[in-house]
Each structure stands twice: as C-alpha cells, then as structure tokens.
Automatic annotation (TrEMBL):
It comes from the Bacteria. It comes from Alkalihalobacillus trypoxylicola. Keywords: Cell membrane, Membrane, Transmembrane, Transmembrane helix, Transport. GO terms for biological process: siderophore-iron import into cell. It is found in: Cell membrane. It is a multi-pass membrane protein. Pfam families: FecCD (PF01032). InterPro entries: ABC_BtuC-like (IPR037294), ABC_transptr_permease_BtuC (IPR000522). GO terms for cellular component: plasma membrane. This is Iron ABC transporter. The chain crosses the membrane at residues 21-40, 71-91, 103-124, 130-149, 161-181, 209-233, 245-270, 290-309, 321-340. Belongs to the binding-protein-dependent transport system permease family. FecCD subfamily. One of its GO terms (molecular function) is transmembrane transporter activity.
Length: 345
C-alpha cells in the first residue's frame, strides 16, 4: 500500500475542536442506538434487566434472556451498517459519483444472484459459502457496471454509471426471480432475506463477518489520502504521485468485499451507504480521512435504528430493516437527483 502515494497534498484540516465535537456526538448516538436495540422491541426491557443481561447477573429472568438474544443481533447490525457505510463512501470516491451506493450500482443484486444461485444449484448452507459467492458476484457485477459505464467518449460519467447500475440491477433481479420461482424451497428460505434484515444475526455470523470487516476498513482508511487526490482528477492525482489504477483496484476491492459480505449475511439492504456518507459529507465535507471512519459509525447507527424502528412499528412481528431504509432512502435519492446536478465529486 505504500506505493499508492508518493506525495499527496492533503485537504485543509478541520478545527480540532469541531472535529472532536462531531466524533463525540457520533459516539453518543452510537451508544444510544445500541441501548435502544437491546431494550426496545415487542418486549420492552427495563433498565435493571438490561444491566443484568449485559453482565449475566440473573439468567432466570425473561427480560434478561431477551437482552441476551438481542446482543448478537445488535452487534451484527452494527457490523453490517459500518460495512455498507464504508462501501458507499468508497464507491462514491472511486466513481466520483455523489449518488453511488452498492444498491444503486447493482452490486447488492449481483451478490444476491450468486447466493440464490448457490442455494439452488449447489445446495450451499454455511455463512462462509454465502460470503464467498456473494463477494464473487459483487465483484463481477461491479466490473461489468463500470465497464458498461465507461463506454463512449466521456468515459465513466456519474450519470452513465447510475444508468448502467440500474439496468444491470433490473436484469439480475429478473434472473433471481427466474431461479426462485420453480424452486419453492429456495423461495421459502430467502423471501425475507431478499428484503434485507439483521434479524438472523447470530454469534456465528458475527465471527464470520468480523475479519472481512476489519480488512475492508483498514484498506479503506489506508487509501483515504490517495482517494482525496483522485477526487481532483486522474491527471492531478498522477502528478501528485498516485497510482490511480492500483488505487481504484484496492478501493473497489475493499468496497466490494464489505458490501458482498453484508449482503450475503443480511440480504440486499439498500441506501445505507448513500445516507451515511451524505450525512457525514454535509457536516465535515469531502475529506475521506474523516469521511470513511465516520461513515462507518453513521452507517452502523442508521441500520441499527432502522432495525429498532421496524421492531416497534411491526407490533408483535417486525418490519425488516431493509424496508425501513428503503422507505427513508428512496425519497432522499429522488431529492438528490432532482435538486443537484449528477456530477463528479
């Protein structure tokens, strides 16, 4: 990674006091979302039950057992939200597209197609198999969409990438339906997974996801300074010592494995990357040294709160987190598309 950048001019630094306030508020909101996820749902947990559940003080209480059941789900939700937040930031940086997101560019759908195909034709059943196929599908789809969007004189413009992603996503969704319809066992197993939910989060899925999350975020943070130079254009970045092709490959790989792993385990949850990245950019600006780690935190907060909201409005059942994020994210995407020019970052 040391060869990516020789000398890169860093963006203007933020005032330490302001940055510290943003970080502290983000951590406070993260803690609030964690407490809400553990305490709220069809069964509201009291404070003493929450404390007892966290420290395993009284396992005979029903409220304590509820907290114990919600702990892996909460951690899983945080991991998936962080992965999607960082993936969205990376895809926006690599494509210089302000409305890029794994769901908008079709990467989620490509991962879902390979998982459904693996179940239908190869009888896969383990989390590691899901993740492997999802990452392969996400990578192939990302390469395909970028290749289609790069055709023509202007190259990979933001509008062409979005159109290529939308068309690819629609085609792949049709293939998923074609695979599932004649196979009732596949449809029954994954009709809720396709909506996107963190309700199936277990300690097994958490431990499987953790190494990929760490690798993806480390690669993203190491690439942040060089991606700042890339935002100025390929010629400027090359003049500052950035190996643009190598950088794009590393950043895209990081974004794809994060998105693919999250999709494999939680389903194709949409708009988390778009929402989290735009929120942090609105507050701190485009500097990816801060945008990437804080997008991870905001993505974790957004998905966890979406999960809690789905539990609360679902009554005795629950509304999947993917439905909640789509309900919030779709109007914001329309607003972004209508009130700003689809231009490079």
């Amino acid at each position: 990674m040391s060869n990516i950048v020789l000398k890169v001019k860093e963006p203007k630094s933020y005032k330490p006091k302001f940055l510290s306030i943003v970080i502290i508020l983000s951590i406070i909101l993260l803690c609030i979302s964690i407490v809400a996820s553990l305490a709220l749902g069809s069964r509201v947990v009291q404070l003493e039950e929450l404390i007892a559940g966290l420290f395993q003080l009284d396992m005979s209480s029903y409220g304590v057992s509820v907290v114990q059941e919600r702990i892996p789900r909460t951690i899983f939700s945080l991991f998936c939200g962080a992965a999607l937040g960082v993936s969205g930031a990376l895809m926006q940086a690599v494509t210089r597209n302000p409305i890029a997101d794994p769901s908008i560019l079709g990467v989620n759908t490509g991962a879902a197609l390979f998982v459904v195909g693996g179940i239908a034709f190869f009888n896969i059943s383990t989390a590691s198999q899901f993740i492997t196929l999802a990452i392969i599908g996400a990578m192939i789809t990302a390469i395909f969409v970028y290749g289609i969007g790069s055709m023509g004189r202007a190259g990979a413009t933001p509008l062409k990438l979005v159109l290529a992603g939308a068309a690819t996503s629609a085609a792949l969704s049709s293939l998923i339906t074609a695979i599932m319809l004649p196979r009732s066992y596949v449809m029954d197993q994954f009709r809720f997974w396709q909506v996107g939910s963190v309700g199936a989060g277990t300690w097994s899925s958490v431990t499987t996801f953790l190494p990929i999350l760490i690798i993806g975020i480390i690669l993203a943070i190491v690439s942040a300074s060089a991606l700042n130079a890339l935002a100025l254009g390929d010629e400027v970045a090359t003049g500052q010592g950035v190996r643009t092709g190598y950088l794009r490959m590393i950043a895209a790989f990081s974004g794809v494995i994060l998105c693919g792993a999250a999709t494999a385990l939680a389903g194709p949850i949409a708009f988390v990357g778009l929402l989290s990245t735009h929120l942090i950019r609105l507050i701190l600006g485009p500097d990816l040294r801060y945008l990437i780690p804080l997008s991870a935190i905001s993505g974790a907060i957004i998905l966890t709160i979406a999960d809690v909201t789905g539990r609360l409005i679902g009554g005795t059942g629950e509304v999947e987190a993917g439905v909640v994020t789509a309900f919030i994210g779709a109007p914001i995407l329309i607003l972004l598309a209508t009130r700003m020019k689809v231009r490079s970052l």
